[in-house]
Amino acid sequence: MTRHTHPDPEPTPRWCSCAVPDEEVAPAPSGVSRRNVLIGASAASVLAAAGWPAAAQAAPRDGNVKITIMGTSDLHSNAVNWDYYKDATYSDSAGNAIGLARVSSVVNQVRADRGREHTLLFDAGDTIQGSPLGFYYALVDPVTESGAVHPIAAQMNAIGYDAVALGNHEFNYGLEFLDYWIGQMDADVLAANAVHAGTKVPAYAPYTIKTMKVQGRPPIRVGVLGLTNPGVVIWDKANVSGKIEVQSLVEAAARWVPVMKQAGADIVVVSAHSGDSGASSYGDELPVENAAALVAEQVPDIDVILFGHAHRDVPQRIVTNAQTGRSVIMSEPKNWGQRVSVFDLELEFARGAWSVANGSALTVDTRTVVDDPALVAVVRAQHDAVVQYVNTPVATSTEAMSAAEACWKDTAILDYVNAVQTETVAAAVAGTPEAALPIVSIAAPFNRAATFPAGEVTIKDVAGLYIYDNTLLASVLTGAQIRDYLEYSAKYFAQVDPGAPVAPASWTNAGGTPDYNYDQFSGIDYDVDISQPVGSRIANLSSGGAPVASDQRFLVAVNNYRQSGGGGFPHIATAPVVYNAQVAIREAIVSYASEAGVIDPAEFHVENWRLTRGGTPVF
């Protein structure tokens, strides 16, 4: 299956008017309930309960028309309100709900309140990866092999999405898998800034124009431009290198918005998988990661930006365009279907075209509704298969293990990840020159809530420990490079006075560093002295009882995200790779546990690193 391609607009700017024809908004999919999901409540009362202000329902001025644009982002393969890791209804401390079935209930209510012909529904990316449902149908029972419809495609089609932008996680399972999913989607799937390597030619549809036919009024043409994240080329280098490049969001928007206007778009919406902070988690070798506000500020003729990637709830942000002085309305809905962004736009018709006279945005909380039963039914069989899979026993643990303290202590449960990675790499390089090198392994505390119970350990326990779909590689680093790497990792901790009270939970995540960017090594010994400034914290670095020499070479087991440059760690992205069999680390852990039958910390847990202050151990 080939990716959707379009010619460069510069020599042939007319292509969009014919290659992307005007499309009437599709009717409600058959079988999808449009009834109120809260028994006895009206559409207006449900919206009010969800945080919809009464002012939002005011009638437009005479001659004007009101339209509503809804948006989601960072759904991460959450179809229903279910936590596969806990095998229970999803719950968090705030009482949030998740899943596309919840989103559908909100969408149903907005459509009932506004009128279907007055609404559009978009998504800003990261839809097919991130939950056990996602990895099961990509890696365990791949839809590309079974021929099944991907559960997220099935649900999005049932809800009736009008367009979807690609997020960076759409590339996690490779371009062929992504093509398969795109081929199943009824909605247009967009990414204007993802181009064929070495060209400016989009690898996917850059934009589409939706025609809204409002009774008694001229058609309203809403153009939506999709933008993905430049970090794709780092985070999924193995999948896209030499095939896909990702341009700056600002550059792509400046190139395509005029084309959209020329093609007849009255209103321009940008669906961007990019936060609004203007910052990046990587260096300046790539365009800005979180550039949504920069697009609003620097590119004229944009009315609305739906953005995502940062997993935040931003009901409304107004940015003034520097060239035109016009306001751009922005909103980010909280991830996993916890919120739906809703833009209300009042349009006026003048000189043969529609334009935005007034507008506002908010986010609707999906915990105020229940799962749409029709959307639950769409994925019921697939959901049940995943529940059965994650509850499959794989081994017996001799004792309970927890990741609760893994961010500040060398814990057995994280050592298990390193043990599996080390043995997998050792077996792979047997008989090669690299087999003579000492092996070290890198792992990070992805999930502080992860546990292995004493007794039966299931796949969901393993999935809770290793929540990302990373693959295993091995590279070669020197002792000096490993020291630099560990110093960079140790910036995760705040600087703490040697005599301060012991409060480790308050020491972590310094500078906003997430847990998944605190890498811990096995196979070498070292101290992390958090009383020292960043860059001078690693002490007593040794291997086999001897100090590590600067030129000593090590074989390093590492995941693909880190090896490709994710997190900005030094040296690893340029280190020679000696093993890359595309083995999924989570599946390797499952296989290792299943073959062994028993998980015994006495066989693999070695306390090789520790926190210190002024040379004195904290614990």
Automatic annotation (TrEMBL):
Keyword terms of this UniProt record: Hydrolase, Nucleotide-binding, Signal
SUPFAM superfamilies xref list: 5'-nucleotidase (syn. UDP-sugar hydrolase), C-terminal domain, Metallo-dependent phosphatases
Gene3D superfamilies on file: 3.60.21.10, 5'-Nucleotidase, C-terminal domain
Pfam families: 5_nucleotid_C (PF02872), Metallophos (PF00149)
Domain 5'-Nucleotidase C-terminal: 394-573
Family: Belongs to the 5'-nucleotidase family.
Protein name, per record: Bifunctional metallophosphatase/5'-nucleotidase
Source organism of this protein record: Agromyces bracchium
